[in-house]
Design brief:
Layout lengths: L4 E2 L6 E3 L4 E3 L1 E3 L2 E8 L18 E3 L34 E6 L7 E7 L18 H7 L2 E5 L4 H4 L16 H16 L5 E11 L1 H9 L11 E5 L15 H10 L13 H17 L18 H4 L10 E6 L8 H4 L7 H9 L1 H14 L16 H11 L6 E6 L17 H4 L13 H20 L19 E5 L4 E4 L5 H14 L10
Parallel strand pairs: 3-6, 8-9, 8-10, 10-11, 11-12, 12-13, 13-14
Antiparallel strand pairs: 1-4, 2-3, 4-5, 5-7, 7-9, 14-15
Helix pairs in contact: 5-6, 9-10, 10-14
Length: about 525
């Protein structure tokens, strides 16, 4: 197959609110990288960028937010990554579009994972927006923003200028959404039909935006992938004053303004030294959104805002999530029958309760795989869907249940659904299972694009998918035999949490892969 690349005067040039940018064209897709949407002083709210004259180059990815710890590549077979240049000047976004015209196409805005501490808009290979743009005839945008101590550290005790420093990273995203609203029509997108989609921390950023009044009206719909995580990404509570003073003492500073000027390396090192002790004492260490006048707090604890209660959402998880990373479960002795393996780990009484429910929910799976079934994400997701669906008729539930091509097939893990959502399975070798991969990718991608276009995920290649209500969770289970199942795991998951929770509490390692 031959490809067509174009870069030159008059090609892929767009006049934005701050000046002209020039990207490039590739196989009839116009691509723009590293577009600055705002600027920010450390710990302060984002501000407009300075306008420029002439054409600004938009062919290079922009800086990504610096991390607290240097990443070490591991688990790349399961979740392939790419790493990029770090700098605090990281408020930038990337755009893929079928045409810089007046097409009014659906707009999909990707919010990356990594909690609120790590990750970037380009971190995973599967985040590439080209296939989604071309095959879905949509405008795709991915956003970088401040993270960790830069984006989620509360200094409000030190003056009004820091009033929302505990949510600075979220304010960055809101600034990006405003830029998109004001400019995306020139990239062929419809600013009134914007869908946020994000996985893990990216999904949690969507649930946070729903609770922030400043974000109202900037998006129309949301797709939350493994983003309802309960206590794993709970809100930061209390004041950040003690944390900030501890960092200042560590750095031998007397004025909080000096924290704005020390190198990021020194700032991160100070945070890493003082935060473990505060965390052990149950005190504020930041790193997640901070409830205040700008952010209501999680809906599970504070209720859903009525202003966003009717925003359509697709919400789901993956069969194995973190558990599926572990060879301790996936690499068990195949000569031991599944029932015996469960009894060996959890005891006969637990097995007697769990296995009949597991067989009913997952009749095609080995009984031992009940030990790989996620509850950390699925349990709070069930509750979120139950409550939210009582407020509207546009809350859709899904579960990704396609094994990956590792050994004889391993239960899907955290991030396993991302290549299917982006239509990027061709970029992730471990997804390759011939026609099965093609089928599931068409099903998942079709639902994503149907939802982005009209707020309803139904299309011709999947069974009819009804919105959930408090009594019945209609879950689209994507797999070899994709089907809609009603309340199929409602009894099972709480029991898995009951019996597998202590296993995790004994020190289960979720860091076997960079996710």
């Amino acid at each position: 197959m031959s490809h067509v690349f174009t870069y030159g005067p008059g090609k892929a040039v767009v006049e934005t609110t701050y000046g002209k940018i020039r990207g490039y064209e590739y196989d009839n897709i116009s691509i723009f990288k590293g577009i600055p949407y705002a600027r920010a002083r450390r710990f302060h709210a984002p501000e407009p960028v300075e306008p420029w004259e002439g054409e600004r180059d938009a062919t290079n990815y922009g800086y990504v937010c610096p991390l607290l710890n240097r990443p070490q590549a591991n688990g790349e077979l399961m979740v392939p990554h790419r790493y990029w240049i770090e700098n605090e000047d990281c408020l930038n976004l990337n755009i893929w579009t079928p045409g810089c015209d007046d097409g009014k196409r659906p707009v999909l805005v990707w919010l990356h994972g990594g909690g609120f501490r790590e990750g970037s808009a380009i971190e995973q290979v599967a985040y590439e927006g080209e296939n989604m743009c071309r095959e879905g005839q949509a405008v795709v945008v991915s956003v970088n923003h401040r993270l960790n101590v830069l984006g989620f550290c509360d200094l409000s005790a030190f003056g009004e200028e820091y009033a929302n420093s505990g949510n600075a990273g979220m304010d960055d995203i809101i600034a990006a959404l405003r830029w998109i609203r004001d400019n995306i029509a020139k990239f062929g997108g419809d600013p009134d039909n914007m869908t946020l989609f994000g996985q893990s921390g990216g999904g949690a950023k969507i649930t946070t935006l729903l609770q922030m009044p400043a974000a109202d009206g900037l998006y129309a719909k949301g797709i939350i992938m493994s983003g309802i995580i309960g206590p794993v990404l709970a809100d930061s509570e209390g004041s950040g004053e003690e944390l900030v003073r501890a960092m200042m003492k560590e750095l031998k500073l007397t004025d909080v303004k000096e924290l704005e000027k020390v190198s990021y390396g020194h700032l991160a090192a100070a945070y890493n030294r003082v935060s473990p002790k505060l965390q052990k004492e149950g005190k504020y260490i930041g790193g997640t959104p901070h409830p205040n006048a700008f952010y209501r707090g999680t809906p599970e604890k504070n209720g859903f805002r009525q202003e966003t209660a009717r925003i359509p959402l697709v919400i789901g998880t993956v069969f194995g999530e973190f558990t599926a990373f572990s060879d301790a479960f996936a690499g068990r002795d195949p000569s031991v029958p599944g029932e015996e393996a469960v009894k060996g780990l959890l005891g006969a009484d637990a097995a007697a309760e769990l296995l009949p429910l597991f067989e009913k929910a997952y009749p095609e799976r080995d009984p031992a795989e009940v030990m790989m079934l996620d509850f950390i994400f699925r349990l709070p997701t069930q509750e979120y869907i139950k409550i939210r669906s009582g407020l509207n008729d546009c809350t859709y539930s899904y579960l990704f249940d396609l094994n990956m091509a590792v050994g004889d097939g391993r239960a899907p893990w955290h991030c396993a659904d991302i290549p299917f959502v982006f239509r990027n399975t061709e970029l992730v070798p471990v997804t390759q299972q011939g026609e099965v991969t093609k089928k599931v990718e068409e099903e998942v991608f079709g639902c994503v694009m149907a939802f982005a276009e009209k707020g309803d995920p139904n299309h011709s290649k999947v069974p009819h998918w009804s919105a959930s209500d408090p009594e019945t969770e209609h879950t689209m289970v994507f797999g070899k035999e994709t089907a809609v199942k009603d309340n199929f795991d409602r009894e099972l998951v709480p029991l898995v949490a009951k019996y597998m929770g202590p296993v995790f509490a004994r020190g289960f390692n979720t860091e076997t892969v960079q996710h």
